[in-house]
Amino acid sequence: MKNFEEKLSKISPNERRILQNLSIFWEQITAQEFQRLLKVLELKNPEGKTYSVQYVSLLRNSLIHKGILQNTKEYWGSGFQIADAELKEFFTREAFRENWFGATVARIQTNFPAEEFSRWYYNGERRKFRLLRDYRLSIYQKKFDKTAQLFNQIAESEIIDKAGEIIVQIFSEPFQKEFLGEFNKKFQAEILPSLFEKSYEKSEPTDELWNFVNENKLEDFPIIKGYKIEEMMLRGEIAEAGKLIGEPANLGEIISAATIAFLQKDYAKSVRLYEEGVKLWRKSF
Q: Exposed, middle or buried, 52 (CB in 10 Å: 0-12/13-18/19+)?
C-alpha cells in the first residue's frame, strides 16, 4: 500500500469530508458537476455557507496543488478526480464507516444516474463509468441482487475486466480481511483468486491470504485448491502437491498432475494425463 500520510496531513477536516464524497462519486467530475454535487449533498464551507463558484474553484486548485486531486481527460471530455485509485478506496472506506454513507450514496445515484446518458458515442462512455460506480457501491452496501443486475449490464457493455479491477481495489491495498470476512464463503472464494493474482504480479507474500483461507475453511473450493497446488509446485514441493491433488477432479488438477508426473520423470503417466486434459478441454470449450 502506498503511504498517503504526507498528503493527508495537508488537508482540513472539511476537505476530507468533501474528498470522501468525491470518492463515492468515483468517476471524473467536471467543475459544474462538482458545484452541483456539493449543493446536492448540502455540504457547507468552513464559514457554514453554500459553496460559491469562486470558492469551489479555489478549493479544487488547492487540492490539486496538494496532490490529492488531479486534472484528467476521459474520452468524453476533461475534468478532475482523486489522484490515485488506492486513495479513492481509502476515502470510501472512511466514508463507509460514517452513518451518512447510505444516504449520500442514494443522493448521488439519484442525482447523477447512469440513465442520464445514452449508450452511444461519448455518452456511452460516461454511462459505463456510472455502471461501474454503482457496481462498486453495491458491493460496499452488500446489495447482491443489485450487484448481479449491474454485472449483467456491465457484461453487455463489454467492461467485465474493469469490474474485476474494481473488486481487487475494494479488497486490497491493504488486504481488507475483516470486510471480506463479512461476505459468504462462495463470494470469498470467487474474490480471492484475483487477490492471489495481484500478489503474484507484485511479488508480494500470500501468507495473509492463506491465513484467511484457513480461518474461513475455504480450502475445499476447487479454485482455491488450484492456487494452493500451484504455489506448492512453484516452491518445489512437488511430492506434496501431488498428494494434495490425489485423484485429479478437474482440468486444472489434471494438467498439474501431468506436470508433476513429468517432473518426476514418469513420462508415460505425464503423456496420458496431458492427453486426458486435452480431451476434457475440447469437450468443455
A: exposed
**Residue that has been written with the C-alpha cell 470476512 in this structure:** 181
Distance CA 75, CA 92 (A): 25
pLDDT tens for each residue of 125-147: 899 999 999 999 999 999 999 99
Contact between residue 89 and residue 169 where contact means Cβ atoms under 8 Å apart:
yes
- Number of Cβ within 10 Å of residue 262's Cβ equals 15
How do residues 221-243 score in pLDDT, each as one tens digit? 999 999 999 999 999 999 999 99
| Higher pLDDT among residues 179 and 116, named by residue | 179
The predicted structure's pLDDT at residue 92: 98
Query: 122 with 75: CB under 8 angstroms?
Result: yes
pTM over 0.85, yes/no: yes
In tens, the pLDDT along 52-62 reads 999 999 999 99
Secondary structure (DSSP) of the chain:
----HHHHTTS-HHHHHHHHHHHHH-S-B-HHHHHHHHHHTT-B-TTSSBPPHHHHHHHHHHHHHTTSEEEEEETTEEEEEES-HHHHHHHHHHHHTSTTHHHHHHHHHHHS-GGGS-SSHHHHHHHHHHHHHHHHHHHHTT-HHHHHHHHHHHHHTT-HHHHHHHHHHHHTTTT-HHHHTTS-HHHHHHHHHHHHHHHHHTT---HHHHHHHHHTT-TTSHHHHHHHHHHHHHTT-HHHHHHHHSS--SHHHHHHHHHHHHHTT-HHHHHHHHHHHHHHHHHH-
Tell which residue, 237, 242, 280, has the closest CA to residue 261: 242
CB 233 within 8 A of CB 260: yes
